[in-house]
Amino acid sequence: MTDHILDFLDATFPFGDLDLVSFDAPIPDHWHEFAEAKGFELLRRVRDRNHLELRCNQCDGTMICKIYTLRTAQPICPHCQKARWQALCEEAGVRFLGRGDRANYLRVQLPCGHETSRQQELLERVRRRTTAIRCEACLEARMQAEARARGWELIGDDPDGHLSYRLYRHACRYIQRVAVANMTTGRFTCRNCSEGWLNDRSYIYMMRFVLKSGRDAIKVGFSRDPASRLRHQLVTERDQDALLIRSIEVPTGREAIELEKALHTTLRRQHPDAELDRMEFAAEVNVVSELYDAKIEAEITALLDRIEIRLKRRARRREKRRLKRLRRRLEQSQAPACPAATDKLSPPDQE
Ligand SMILES: [Zn+2]
Ligand SMILES: [Zn+2]
Ligand SMILES: [Zn+2]
Question: Which segments carry the region annotation Disordered (predicted)?
Answer without folding.
Answer: 327-351
